[in-house]
Amino acid sequence: MKTHTKEKNFTCQICHKSFGHNQTLKSHILTHTGEKPYVCDVCGRRFAQRTHLKRHIFIIHTGVKPYSCKECNKQFSSKSYLAIHTRQHTGERPHTCEVCKKDFTAYTTLKHMRVHSDEKPYNCSVCNKQFSISGNLKLHMRIHTGERPFSCDICNSQFSQSSGLKRHRCTHLDRVNS
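Structure for C2H2-type domain-containing protein, as requested:
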């Protein structure tokens, strides 16, 4: 009945948000304490709420991708991932950095703010070089591992970054146009 009457008798003593069920309040309180008791059996990532764990497992580990882009047919596991991807086609960039005014397709890319603060929380375990973005550390690690995941489909040359492969492909186009 509480669900239908929208009765909310359980109130968080920290932020004063109200809930209809005591268990929902208990889950909510974990957002304040930082406790994350729900652990993914596959990757070990921790979550404060069971529903977040369930969503993580579905989106990340099941491989199910029920949402398709109408432009390119690429498939996604969530509506939000599809929405962010669709912005590549529309050119929409609704999130703006307040410092440099650069626009982004997703709010999460505002981690870019680390560029302005010189915060570099990601460290190379081999040479101790520091990075502000985890993806840049991942790219850097290819220097140490020798990984070259990008291959030319014409001559099989391999590259550590997609940008290197793109530049290389132009050499094949120059030969064709000559």
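Residues 64 and 77 are 6 Å apart (CA to CA).
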